[in-house]
User: Fold these one by one.
Assistant:
Number 1:
Amino acid sequence: MVNINSITGIILAGGKSTRFGANKPQLKIGKSYLIDRVLDTLSQFTSSILIVTTEDQLGLAKSAAPSARVVKDIYPGKGPLGGIYTGLMHTETSYSLVVGCDMPFLNSGLIKYLIDGVSSFAAVVPKIGWMIQPLHAIYSKSCVPSIEALIRDDQLQIIKLFNLVNTRYVTEKEIDQFDPDHLSFLNINTEGDLLKAEVMIGGKTSPKNVKKRAY
């Protein structure tokens, strides 16, 4: 079992969010900004939180999350795999929990279960049926050399990493103990996703009424 104080929270926030006309950290769901909901959950496990973003969004990320450390992608344009690499390169802990900035329903019980299940594994990844959830997973710093090799070969599918390192897949049955509706993995990618999240938390904001945080 890994001490939860030895975990870093890595939030990937490098997406363009072109479908909204606003960056995802600016999205508001109910009374909370999307990024705040993610930060609130991760702060239950660690005071070490890192946000990985692109160079042109550094100012936005720092304004949206002043309590977190913000770093820019080491390998720009390499997608989530590049973001994971950047996060791991900047952490001081052996393990990190990696999540997206657009996941409003992270489940504390499930997160603790993932952390407790690390043991000697290099990665702990939820898997529902054939669907792997690499952006809601635990990664060890030992993954860094394998990720770097994949990036240099322009092999950017995260699933390729799991074939190279000692990976534990957390099964659907295990996940259902904490999150039977699998809301932990709900990403806000479209206006429909935003509306669904609004309804679920009892909000009344229309997806057309996406508010931007003032900076």
Note: Strands lie at 7-12, 28-29, 32-33, 49-53, 69-72, 95-100, 123-128, 131-132, 136-140, 167-170.
Number 2:
Amino acid sequence: MGRLIEEVSLRNKLHVFEDRTEAGGLIAGKLVQYRDSGGIVLGIPSGGVPVAREIAVALHLPMDLMIVRKLQIPYNPEAGFGAMGLGGEIILNEGLLAQLGLSEGEIREQAEKTKEVIKRRNQVFRGGRPFPVLKDRIVILVDDGLASGYTMLAAVSFVKRNKPGKIIVAVPTASKRIVELVLLEVDELVCLNVRHGISFAVADAYRNWYDLSDVEVLSMFK
């Protein structure tokens, strides 16, 4: 199990960050030992990009984007039953799947749709460029929070296949249950605002929260 780095004073609190930019700067302060380390910061679009940008700038590390996507429930596209990574890796929420009763055909159909979405988003955000070399490098995966955790786990799965030296997940906020899930798969997890309880929303950690457009993501990445 990996090591958790949190801000105990922020535990179980709401609206603790002004915005994603402030959160990224605070996370960077927990990762100063990786400044000029030759590692790489990978932001998950869209919300993870402004957080990742602050970390990359503060640590003098290159930044790229990690395209992952949830597998949508057919009749409820706002929710997902798992996620797919850039290399086609699929992480399924087995407990939820058992409740949903989706057929293998329905799962396969959603996986094919998700693969096409990832391909398009990779072209839009990264221009289809070859992915940077991760072998033996410190990889810092960044999002603006962990809700179900499955998109991050799909990203971790992709990174593991590329044999990094160390995997660090850095997020401003997450539920305690998801923190424990992700810690099983990574070397370190930086999560400043860990919240207990059944109800959890990433947006509740921020005073200024809005959905980022593709144009904003591209401008930040460039």
Note: The chain has a mean pLDDT of 95.
